Amino acid sequence: MNRHHEEQQGQKKRILIVDDEPDITRLCSLALEYHGFKVDTFNDSEEALSNFNPDYYDLVILDIKMPKMDGFKLYDGLKKKDNDVKVCFLTASELYYEEFRKKEYHALDKTLFIRKPIDNEDLLKEINRIMTSA
Amino acid sequence: LGSSNTTSPSAAEKTEVLQGLDKTTEAIIEFLYSAEVSMNICADHTWPSVAMGVEIYKKGLFELKTRKVKFRTITDVTKDNIEYCKELMQIAELRHLDGIKGNFGISEKAYTASATLQEATLLQQVVYSNVKAILEQQQYVFETLWNKAIPAEQRLREIEEGIEAEVFETITNHEVVSQILVDLAKSVKKEALFFLPNDKAMVSIDKLGIVDYLIKASQKSDTTIIRVVCPLSNENAEVTNKIAKNAPRIQILNGNNYKYGIYIVDNQKALRVELKVPSADTFSEAIGFAVYSNRPSTVSFFRSVFGLLWNERMLNEQLKLHDKMQKEFINIASHEMKTPTQAILGMSGLLQYYPEKKDELIEVIRRNAKRLQTLTSDILDVTRIESQTFQLEKERFNIYELLSDVIKDYTERIKSDNKNIELLYEQQNINRPILIEADKGRINQVLSNLLNNALKFTDEGQITISVYENSDNENKKEVVVKVVDTGSGIDNEIYPKIFSKFATKSHQGTGLGLFISKSIIEAHGGRIWAENNADRRGATFIFTLPIIEGTLDAEHNNQK
Asked: How far apart are CA B502 and CA B528, in angstroms?
C-alpha cells in the first residue's frame, strides 16, 4: 500500500511478466509498453524468482504451465519475498488451473485468472481492473 | 470295443441275473479273465475291500495288469478304505467320487453289476450282460462319472493331511472369527481373494498380522494369486503402501463400502463376515456374525461373487484411466493450440501500433501460424492412429533415393540457419538399391521428425545418418536407418515415455512427432527405438523397415 502513495504522478506503472514462451513475453511487453507501462520479462521461472525485486512492481503476470517451476510455486516464492505484491495469472491451461484451484490455491480469487487467447485491448482492461482492485 | 471276431454278435447276446455264490463267482471270474483291452469298474466305498480283500477277485484283478488290460476304477475313497485303495492303485488308475453308489463293471466284452456289496465278501447277486447296446450305454455312464471324479492321489493327500470335514457354520463369537481369518491368511498357498467392506478393515486386518501373511504368501511363490478389493483412502494408505513395496504382485482394486467382507482362500475355504460397527478400530469390534464354510459348493459360490465384483472394479479402473488420458490429451492439445493463437491474435493487433516493427511482428505471426498448422496436422494424425483409420499409400521404392533427397534438403537448411552442424551420411558399400514397399510421404515424415529433433537438441557437432542391411531375429532382411547426433541427449525423466504423446521438454515441438513416427514405422512392420550415446554425447534414433526382394517395376520407376 505504502509504495503506491510514494509514487509520483505520471510515473510509469511497473509490470513483471513470466512466461516460458518468448513470443508471448515479447507480445505482452510490446502491447503494454505501448500503453505506457514499464515491462520486465522472464522466460525462466527460476531466474524470475532469483532476480525478483521486492516492493518494485505494481503487478506480476504469471503463466501457470512452465518447466522447472510452475506458476503456482513461483507465486509462493514471490509472495515470500514481497507479501504485498499483486499477482495474476495468464494461462492457456484450463484443467491445470481448475485442479490447482481446487487444492491448495483455492483461496485465490477467480478474477485473478486471465485466459489465453485474449486480444490486446481486453488484456489491457483486465490488467487495469486487477491493478485498481483492492 | 472291437472283439466281435471271437463271438458271433447277435446269437450269443444275453442278459441274465445270477444268484448264488457259485454262479456269481464264476460269472465274475469269467468277466475278469475275458477282458483283453479295457476294464472299467465303478463301485461304492466297500468295493476296494471286496477287490483287494477277497483273494480270488484280487488275483483276477492283478492278472489284468499282467495282460496289459487298461484298468480304470472309480470309488469313494474314505479314511476307512484308504489302505485297500492304495493297493488298488498299483494295478489301476483310481479316481474318487464323493458318496458314489451303485456297483458295475464293463470290459470290452461284458457288463456286470451288483446292487449290494458287503465288506470283503463274495458277491451274492450279479447282473451279467454282453448285449452290445447295454455295454455301450454303461460305458457312457462310466465315462461321465469318470470325468466328474478327481484323481485318488489328491483325495488321499487330503485325507492323510487330515483335511477337516466339510462344515458350514454360523459363528457369533468375534474372537473365533478373527482367529479363523488369521488361520485362513496363514494357510494361503495358491490363491487369496479378499473383499473388504470399508477402508478401516484393511487397517484392522493388518493389526491382526493378516496383511503380513499375505505378503509372505506372495513372496514365497510368484504363481500365488492374491487379490484385494477395498475402498482406498488416507486411512489405509500406509498399509497399501507396505503391500505395494513388499509384494507388488498383490493386486488391489479400489472398492465401495459394503455391509460385509468376503475372504476366500485356495478355493477351499470361505468366510463371510458382517460389518456391524463400521467405525470400530479393531476387527472383532467391527464385525457382526460370520459364516464359515469349506463346502465346495459354498466356496465356489463366494468365489464367483468375488469374481463378479473384481471384474466390475477392474472395468471401473480402466474407464477412469481412459477418461484421465482423454482429459489430459484435450488439456495439452488445447494449451498447445491457445499459445500460438495468442501470439497470432496479439501480434496482428500490434501491427497498427508498431508499423516500424512490421517485419519482426509478421515473422512471429508466420512462425506461430506454422506451429499451429503442424499441431493441427499432428493432432489429425494422432486421431487417425487412435481411431485406426490411419492409411498408408504404399509404393515400391529405393530407400537410398529418399535418403539422399532428405539429406540434400537438410544440408541446405543447416546452411541457411547458420548452425555449426555437419550433416554426415554413411551408406553401406553395395551397388544395388535397397527396396522397400512403403508410404514415401510417411517415411519422409519420420526422417524429417528425427532430423528436426536432432537439430533442435544439437547446438554444434555432427548429425550422422547411416543406413545398412541387416537380418532380424527371424532371418528376414531389413533395412536399418540410424540418426546419431552430438546434442544434449535424452532426458532421463522423458526417456521411458519418449514415444508417447506429449512427452517433451522442448517448447518448439508438439510432443506428438515421435508418437506418430512410431505408429508409422510399426504400421510398416518395422521397429523404432532410441538410446543415449555411450560417450554421453547426444542420442541415437534407429528404425528398421522390411526389405522387399525383387526389382522396381516399370510403373514405379518412371521418374528416371
From this structure: 18
Q: Which three cell numbers stand for residue B171?
A: 459363528
SS3 sequence, B454-484?
A: HHHHCCEEEEEEEEEEEECCCCCEEEEEEEE
pTM across the whole model? 0.54
Of all residues in chain A, the one with the smallest CA distance to B363 is: A23
Q: What is the mean pLDDT of residues B287-303?
A: 90
What's the gap in Å between the CA of A97 and the closest CA on chain B? 11
Tell the residue number behind the cell numbers 523404432, with chain if given: B528
User: Best of A19, A21, A23, A98 to disrupt the B interface by mutation (most B CBs within 10 Å)?
Assistant: A23
* Sole residue written with cell 470335514: B165
Search chain B and give the residue with CA nearest A92.
B335
> Are B204 and B177 within 8 A, CB to CB?
no
C-alpha R_g of chain A = 14
- Chain B residues with CB under 8 Å of A27 CB are 342-343, 346-347, 350, 364
Distance CA A92, CA A62 (A): 11
The separation between the first and the last C-alpha atoms of chain A, rounded to the nearest angstrom, is 10
Cβ-defined contact of A34 to B507 (cutoff 8 Å):
no
- Averaged over B338-355, what is the pLDDT? 91
| Distance (Å) from the alpha carbon of A33 to chain B's nearest alpha carbon | 11
Is residue B62 within 8 A of residue B92, CB to CB? The reply is no
- B505 CB within 8 Å of a chain A CB: yes
The percentage of residues in chain B with a pLDDT greater than 90, rounded to a whole number, is 52
The partner residues of B113 in beta bridges, in order of sequence, read B104, B127
Contact A93/B335, CB-based, under 8 Å? yes
Residue of B334, B335, B338, B342 to mutate when probing chain A, most A C-beta within 10 A: B342
- Alpha-carbon distances, residue B155 vs B79, B80, B91, B150, B309 (angstroms): 10, 13, 18, 7, 31
The mean pLDDT of B88-114, rounded to a whole number, is: 91
Distance from C-alpha of A91 to C-alpha of A114, rounded to nearest angstrom: 6
B259 Cβ neighbours under 8 A, 6+ residues apart: B197, B274, B275
**Alpha carbon distance A62, A21 (integer Å):** 12
pLDDT tens for B31-74 read 999 999 999 999 999 889 889 988 888 999 999 999 999 999 99
Cβ-Cβ contacts under 8 Å, B330 against chain A: 95
**How many other CB atoms are found less than 10 A from the CB of residue B88?**
24
How far apart CA A49 and CA A60 sit, in angstroms, is: 11
Per DSSP, helices labelled H in B45-173 are: 47-53, 55-66, 82-88, 132-148, 152-160
CB-CB under 8 Å, A65 with B367: no
Q: Look at residues B495, B519, B547, B534 and name the one whose alpha carbon lies nearest to residue B446.
A: B519
Q: Report the DSSP beta bridge partners of residue A87.
A: A60
Instruction: Return the higher-pLDDT residue of A101 and A28.
Output: A28
How far is the alpha carbon of A129 from chain B, nearest alpha carbon, in Å? 19
Size of the A and B interface in Cβ pairs below 8 Å: 70
Backbone angles phi, psi at B552, to 5 degrees: -70, 130
Residues of A with a Cβ under 8 Å from any B Cβ are 20-21, 23-24, 26-28, 30-31, 34, 65, 67, 92-96, 116-121, 123
CA A40, A42, A45, A46 dihedral sign is negative
**C-alpha to C-alpha distance for B6 and B161, rounded to whole angstroms:** 49
Q: Which one, of B251, B306, B259, lies nearest residue B278 by Cα? A: B259
